[in-house]
Design a protein that fits this description.
The chain starts with a helix and ends with a strand. By secondary structure, it is mainly α. The strands form two sheets. A two-stranded parallel ribbon has the order 1-4. Strands 2-3 form a two-stranded antiparallel sheet. A hairpin with a 3-residue loop joins strand 2 and strand 3. The protein is built from 18 helices and four strands. The longest helix is centred in the C-terminal third of the chain and has 31 residues, at 337-367.
Length: 460
Amino acid sequence: MIVLTTMAYGTVHYWALAIFAATAAGMVCLWCLDGLVLRSVRVSKNLLQLPMLGMILLGLIQLLPLRSAADNAGLPLTLSRSLSLDPYATRLVLVQVTALFIYFAATLIFIDTPRRLRTLTRTIIIFGFLLAMFGLTQSFTSDGTKVYWFRQLTQSTAFGPFINRHHFAGYMELTLALPLGLLFSGSIEAHKRPLYAFAAMLMGVALIMTNSRGGIISLGAEILFLVVIAGFGLRRESEEKPKRIRAIIIRAGLALGMVIALIVGAVAFGGADVFNRLLGTTNAADPTTGRSHYWSITLDVIKTNPILGSGLGSLGVIYTRFDTRNGMYRLEQAHNDYLQTLADGGIVGAILGLTFLILLFRWAFKRRHTDDKFRRGVATGALAGCFGVLVHSAFDFTLHTTSNALLFLILAAMATLDHRVDESGGGRRRRRRHRRQHSVDQDDTQTSAVTPIYVETPER
């Protein structure tokens, strides 16, 4: 699904969303079949699941008919009395979030061995490399107005399979973070490092070629984040001060070399004009290119619905009520995920989102404290990818694209997986032996047959 959701225009159309929801339902069926075969139901106690469940619950509350007829923010909504000003959009968002939650929970459960973690990591890196090649090829052979060389666009600039080039940049931020995390953590054998470095460089060049200012800023923030958190781990790796200083210098040199390679590669591929949009803007009076107006209107929406918000996905409807321009264009997203979370979910939604981020960084930093170098590199890279997209979310809405949201959650799961995925972890085989022994003990003592429910805990 990582591949399919991306190639289907990022899964933003109704037909693609329907297929995505259907596959999530199929995942639940396979999950139940796994429980029947193993005679156990496995669930995870990873606390990152709670804010997502809270967001689903918030959406369900917003669909309750609790709004009076005179309290519709000036909109002619006579058929609906739900708290959400756009109940249809809220239902659609709920289906999407539920499907994402299913894949997130499944990742926490079924990526339970070092081999599976390595397979997933390599799959993301290889696919990101191939996607970067595809995006660069398409940018050289078309003018950016066509997707897959045949679908004509009128109001956006395509890059790769994405209708919006900023969303492609956000996807590259996620994929290139894994090879960078492995490199900065020293988790790759020496003979493999040039291969991983080349893959990361090509993905970085593709990101820069999108000409997305938010993407370029996020890439710089991601590299800086890797240098800082990799430096935090040096004290554990070596107690000798000279060795720590040398390791810091090596990592700083690696970061500088990566930045230089990206700049040279971008200029070589796109010419000297590739950074024009970063250095200048089409409207000098508004360097945000209209985003300041979008944000001011979103703030008015937040003031009107401060507690529970206007409804998940309802910004496209309520925005027209506060828009002070001619209304020629209907804005679907606020171009700032943090403001839109406040607008759609109110203070409750903001608390849920903040809780998710706090838990993500807290558990990811704990998971980096392991003797398994590959596990530490994956946790470092996955967290850096999430950090890069969170920086980009202050300028855009990349996480509203299903493929980006799915990969973001998978990286969040990879960063917070428990010690089963460590090379020294117990793994799935040990649990199966425990279940067989438990069954034998029950037969010997002639106790009643009860299907055990095994709970995957975040601790060892």
